[in-house]
Amino acid sequence: MSRKHRDLMKVLIGEIVGGSLQEGDRLPREADIAEDFEVSRGVARECIRGLEERGLVSVKHGRGATVLPARNWDTFDPEILTALLQGTGSRAILGDYLECRRILEVEAAGLAAARATDEEIESLGQAFAHMKTSAERARANPSAEDQYQEADIAFHRAVIAASENVALGRITEPIHRALSAAMGQHARPEARFERGLPEHEKILRGIEKRKPDAARAAMREHLATVENYIREYDSDGARRRT
User: Fold this and answer.
1) Which pLDDT score, from 0 to 100, does residue 235 have?
2) What distances in angstroms separate CA 42 from CA 11, 33, 58, 210, 227, one per listed residue?
3) Which of 38, 125, 171, 204 is most buried, most CB within 10 Å of its CB?
4) Would the pLDDT of 241 be above 50?
5) Would you state the pLDDT for residue 56?
6) CB 107: neighbour CB atoms within 10 A?
7) What is the separation of C-alpha 128 from the centre of its chain, rounded to a whole number of angstroms?
């Protein structure tokens, strides 16, 4: 995807998700989009196709592209999720994702404690070690926060892999991908290091010791912390705006 294609896609997604273009509205014609944004018709065509693939519009020959209701949107798509989180309902939307994650990952931790192979436990230990290294780097250099975020997600994926449930991995993959895109603007790095590392270690120890109840409890505690510091972040932001 070219930069022009990507930038145009973000604008059009933002207009639909933000309500400038509402359900039932028709997008401008391909030629008009190309002229307005100073891109080729090919770029405009690819963007409209991308909107259709994401469930944002329906394209019919001779009628152009029509905006679809929100229930059709692929809210696992990072671009759509980012646009949604910039709106007034961001807390509720992020809450839905975190609730999904809690439902799935608490049990996944228990399954991992019961089923993980020695190799999977070793991989989980390596993922946690990478989290600690990334945290130290990010403490000294805030620009490295993205690396810690990626290491965090990698740890949770390792827990899912250790559950020995292939379907669970497929279900949680888009949730992790979407949350990875969303967490940057809601994250509190200091909380993630001070609270997050010990909590991840508790998850690891529960799985290492083959204690499903302890692993579930540790995962539940950790995900509650994530939800709490997002609420704190939102509250702090609200106070700054008043």
Assistant:
1) 55
2) 17, 11, 18, 56, 43
3) 204
4) no
5) 97
6) 17
7) 20
Sequence-distant (6+) residues with CB within 8 A of 134 are 144, 147, 148, 150, 151
Structural domains present in the chain = 3-70 (1.10.10.10), 78-241 (1.20.120.530)
Quick: pLDDT tens for 126-142. 999 999 999 999 888 88
Alpha-carbon dihedral sign for residues 74, 76, 78, 82: positive
In tens, the pLDDT along 144-159 reads: 888 888 899 999 999 9
Closest CA relative to residue 126, chosen from 166, 102, 159 = 159
- Residue of 67 and 90 predicted with greater confidence: 67
Please, what is the Cα angle at 140 between 138 and 146, to 5 degrees? 20
The mean pLDDT value of the chain amounts to 87
Instruction: With beta carbons less than 8 A apart as the criterion, state whether 23 and 68 touch.
Output: yes
Please answer whether residues 146 and 184 qualify as being in contact, where contact means their C-beta atoms are separated by less than 8 angstroms: yes
User: Is there a contact between 161 and 109 (Cβ–Cβ < 8 Å)?
Assistant: no
CB 48 within 8 A of CB 89: no
Other beta carbons within 10 angstroms of residue 5's beta carbon come to 17
